[in-house]
Design a protein that fits this description.
Strand content: 25-35%
Radius of gyration: 25 Å
Number of helices: 14
Number of strands: 19
Shape: globular
Structural class: alpha+beta
Number of domains: 2
Helix content: 25-40%
């Protein structure tokens, strides 16, 4: 009976893990929506976001005409009026860090990009972002190990590479899609991942000013965006259905799917190495931050990168070319190498998260005697 039990135990076809995602740098995941200057009020270093529609519904008839006129003429709204109703109309709040100097009573920042949130205005990390980061890492590891097989997808002539939408899609199709009968199946469907929701009662959001960094200077369009702050913890669950791998027997990269955490580790390790090289002579603060990231990246609990301003696929190919063509002419890669990086005015790169395996931490360790006693409670052991 014991042998049968152990056989069933070892033959579990679904791998389930509870994970914690801890933010190591600011992260922005947008919805496409913006908060305009008529939807927030500044209270010290706190931005309070409110419902404009709800405010209008609370106004008296003689107040509405003046209120709407102010909006149409882009005038400032009556702050006293807003504050009187704030407890009824406030949705959520976020921190304004000291490095953003231009946000004061005249509201020089006319709008900022909203972070994705749930119905109760609680920010979360969508499962699609987590799966996308894992997908990128698996793609990277497969391409790294089989670069000679795949490089012609982005090779346009000898030692000259170009990554466009067509070649990027072709790479992904070759790696992740298999034919099953007459249907094309995305192998990543074996991953079932839950949205990650916040553990802490902290104010998780902070407003960040994000610049384009080019050469040795900041330039270009500035974005203001709601970002997750550093050191905010989220929980999620990941399930891998191994039975589907048995069904799709012809898929050649099963080991990469099962060892997805190692793929994340390898991708983060190589990405950090390339980024350190870029920032070494350009920004010492960022270089030192990347050195600390290296220490946090482990095979058991790797780092991933999520959200906007991170250039996932272009960075994947960039790292490969740097590694595989270390003596090559960088001009040959001008259509792939990102010429710019996005950073905050506080010298922060974006998107880094550490995955912590709560399933492993919660496992009990049994010696043989403890295991025998446990099994004897339900089975007859001789």
């Amino acid at each position: 009976m014991v042998l049968n039990f152990l056989f069933i135990w070892s033959g579990v076809m679904k791998i389930k893990k509870e994970i914690r995602l801890k933010t190591l740098s600011p992260i922005h995941i947008g919805t496409g929506n913006e908060i305009n200057k008529f939807e927030y009020i500044l209270d010290g270093r706190i931005l309070k976001i409110y419902s404009l529609d709800k405010l209008i519904s609370l106004l008296k008839e003689n107040q509405i005409e003046d209120f709407v006129s102010r909006i149409e003429n882009n005038f400032e709204l009556d702050e006293n009026l807003i504050r009187r109703h704030l407890s009824s109309i406030q949705k959520y709040q976020l921190e304004k860090p000291p490095e953003i100097r231009y946000l004061n009573k005249n509201k020089a920042i006319k709008e900022f990009i909203k972070f994705i949130d749930s119905r109760g205005y609680k920010p979360y990390i969508p499962s699609s972002e987590i799966k996308g980061a894992i997908r990128t890492a698996i793609l990277y590891k497969i391409l790294k190990d089989e670069w000679d097989y795949y490089k012609n997808t982005v090779l346009i002539q000898e030692n000259t590479y170009r990554l466009n939408e067509k070649s990027a899609k072709l790479l992904e199709n070759k790696v992740f899609f298999i034919k099953y009968g007459n249907v094309s199946i995305d192998i990543m469907k074996i991953f079932s991942i839950e949205d990650a929701y916040i553990e802490d009662n902290l104010t998780p959001l902070v407003l960040k000013e994000i610049f384009v960094f080019n050469s040795r200077r900041l330039r270009g369009k500035t974005d203001y965006a709601e970002c997750l702050n550093k050191n905010i913890s989220f929980k999620s669950k990941i399930e891998i259905d191994k039975s589907l791998l048995d069904i799709y027997k012809n898929y050649r990269y099963k080991k990469y799917i099962i060892n997805w955490k190692n793929c994340c580790y390898e991708y983060a390790k190589d990405l950090i190495s390339v980024e350190k090289e870029y920032w070494f002579s350009r920004n010492r603060n960022i270089y030192e931050f990347l050195e600390k990231l290296e220490e946090k990246n482990t095979q058991g609990e790797p780092l991933i990168r999520v959200g906007r301003y991170t250039g996932k696929l272009s960075h994947t190919i960039l790292i490969l070319l740097k590694i595989k063509n270390s003596n090559g002419n960088i001009n040959n890669y001008r259509n792939i190498f990102p010429k710019t990086r996005r950073i905050t005015t506080n010298n922060e790169v974006l998107g880094w998260i550490k995955l912590e395996d709560l399933t492993e931490n919660n496992k009990q360790s049994f010696d043989k005697e403890k295991l025998r006693k446990l099994l004897s409670k339900k089975f007859r052991v001789r």
